[in-house]
Please model this.
Amino acid sequence: MKTDSQLQRDVIEELEWDPSIDHADIGVSVTDSVVTLNGYVKTYAEKMAAEKAAKRVAGVKAIAEEIKIRYPSDAKTADHEIAKRILDMFRWNVLIPQEAIQVKVEHGWVTLTGNVAWHYQSQEAKNATARISGVTGVTNLIAIRSAPTTANLHKRIEEAFRRQADLDANTVTIKTEGSKVFLGGRVKAWHERRVAEQAAWSAPGVTQVEDNIMVV
Model:
């Protein structure tokens, strides 16, 4: 008796063998010798051909057929198509180190993982992903690598604050613990708060910013 994994391989090979089927967008899963077909095909005839191909495989007890028909003019929203478009977007965006980021797509929900040197790279990857059609949500788990030199982190952030025309550096407090930065104090507008947070994130080596600045 074939195992479920053997049946899955046999069904996939049978789909690939049949020239009337474009198997690229068809997924196959097997549980207790019951085969589930899902994904997309271009025509009803192709859908029926896929079902017949699965039935031809010895050991298949039953078939759950969940294949959908998608016409060439329809949006490409299968998970693997979304993932490909995200990777293409990363390659085109010079702000995103695409080789350092991994992409997982499940039912339209995207999870980003990996390690980058700067916070803006993580944010740019998240923003680019969110713009892709078919994406239903984004979980950003990209970590920021800690740079080897963080001894003068407090001083560098303080200097960055003083360079900002839209920020009164004297009203903002800075505390650092390793590569983490804690901001406090008071500003007059939300814009000042954002400027301070962005300046802190721009310091090399920062992996986390906790913004407790009050707007008064």
Observations:
- The mean pLDDT is 87.
- Residues 43 and 69 are 6 Å apart (CA to CA).
